[in-house]
Structures are given as structure tokens and as C-alpha cells.
Amino acid sequence: MKALQYVEVGRPPEIREVPTPEPGPGEVRVKVSAAGACHSDSFVMGLSEEQYAQFGYPLPMTLGHEGAGVVDALGEGVDAVEVGDAVAIYGPQGCGRCYECAQGKENYCPRAAELGITPPGLGSDGAMAEYVLVRDQRHLVPLGDLDPVRNVALTDAGLTPYHAIVGSLAKLTPGTVAVVIGAGGLGHVAIQILRALTPATVIALDIDDDKLDLAREVGAHHVFTSDEDAPERIRDAVDGAKVAAVFDFVAAQPTVDLGLSLLGTESDLVLVGVGATKADVGMLARPYDSTIRSPYWGSRSELMDVLRLARAGQVSVEVETFSLDEAPQAYHRLHEGTLRGRAVVVP
Known about the structure:
By secondary structure, this protein is α/β, with parallel strands linked by helices. The model has no long low-confidence stretch (mean pLDDT 96). The chain contains twelve helices and 16 strands.
């Protein structure tokens, strides 16, 4: 079968012929209908050899941690799905036995690293291929009649912002403001989730006019250029209403500094983008009881919630499609920042 693989550190991914996987006991083979390209992949492929070695990911590795398709073959003992079922793949997989996994929070499994359990496409072979092997049937969520191409990105670009927003729901009360920094692949979905789940006024910030247009189209009440004048524009637009939460989908030092400048008492700064930055913290540095947190992906039940929102027409993803042979181009476009929403590869 064909697969898009990261073969050599520092080199673009390649289309290669690899063996079609056969499911072992408890495993499920899925014929891939759609796979999403993500900035996390670009982050991994942008690491130096020394940095990549610290992650311990194998080479070659098939990319794609957003996957959806049709169950194609079952390993011994699989009884929760049947051949022909349409499914979405839950990516942040854990041991399945710890306290966190028992709650469906496999994204926070404390044993995954020691057991060598990694997400598909981020340490094990992923969905950028004609077929993908899923290690356990519990990682398959019914897709039903949802279009896999239009909705595959919800397994990360929907689940990640949903999990981030749920952690601040109690603060997003009537009359408050939610700010989304970065209105691209995840940010434009976050805007829709905020509109669906909260009464807050939603403001989107970005440096790209096309992404600001997208933010407006999907429901942002106000959109502004992400620069040093943004805090004043926000204050003027909401007449001094409290910014209860800032969701930063970039997490670079300038955006974190901007987010910190918007915080008030009991506000949240939620760093969703992949990065490491610095901030002064403490009673004399930040408003009282304000928080900075860095959520990761989301739980299995939250993925089900996101798909329910999609079925209700409350969340959709702006996508641009590519064939498997065009997948390297999708990552090139992602790196250049010329995608309006999410790139989806259709094998």
C-alpha cells in the first residue's frame, strides 16, 4: 500500500510503498477515508536530529494523527466494531487501565510513555496511508453518517479546542469575553465551539486578513489584527467587559505576552499551541487568581461530544483536500501558512 512517511530528519516526507498491516489480537485495520495534516506534524519534522532523538520516534514513520475510515479487518477478540463500520480514530492513546484512562482521559495517561504507547502518526504509524492499524477497538468512535473528509480534523482540530474551552466554561458567563489568538485550523473551530457552548462575546486575533475573514464567517463577534494595539481595540469593542479567557493557538512569546496583557482577576490564559515560552507569575505579577494552563488534546467522551456538535450543525471545518500523492504538498502549504483551514488527505 501507499503511505506518506517521514524518512529522514530534516527532509520532507515521502510517498512510499509499505506492507499492508495485518491486525493481531485485539487490533483493527481501518481502510482510510481521510487523514488530516496538522501543525504538530510540522513541529516534529522541524526538529533537529538531537531534538528528534529525545522524542524517540522511529524512522521511517507514517504520518497522520487525524484519521477516519471504514473498518476493514478484525483481529482476534474484537467484538465492539464490525467490518464496514464508519469510524473516527481517537489519537491520544493510553494504557487503558489507569485512573485517567478509566475516565476516558487517555490524553493524560501517566503510563503511556513508559509503556512505549504513542499516538498514530506521532510515534507509531498513522493514517496518511491506504490502511491504518488501530491497536484497540476502544480507540474507534462511531462516525455514523458524518462525511469523513469534512469531519476527520475534528479528531484533533475539534477535540483539542473543545477540551481547552471546557476547562474554562465556568468562567465564560454572560457579559464576559473570550479571545481566540490564531484563527487558523484549530482557532476557527474554537470560535464555533465557543459560540455553541457559551454566551461570551468572542473576539478573534490573527495577523492574516484571510484568517480574520474566516473567523468572522464562522461566528466571531469582533476580529482584530494581532498586534500591540489589539488590547485597546478589544477594550473599546466590549466597553471594558471582562476578558474571562484567552485561548492562544500559537503560543509564541509575542502572543503569550499579548494574552497576559488581557488577563483580569480570575481570568484564564490557555496555551493550546505547541511551544515553550516565559511569563512572570505570582501575586505581584499577575491579577489575583488568574491562571495559565496548557491542555493537551482531549478525552474519548469529549471526542463524542464534538462529533455530536457536528451532527447538530454547530461545528464545521474549513478544509482543502489533497490526494495521497499530493500529501507532501499539503505539508508544504501548511509550513508556508497558506492554508485557510485544515488540509485533508483523501487516499
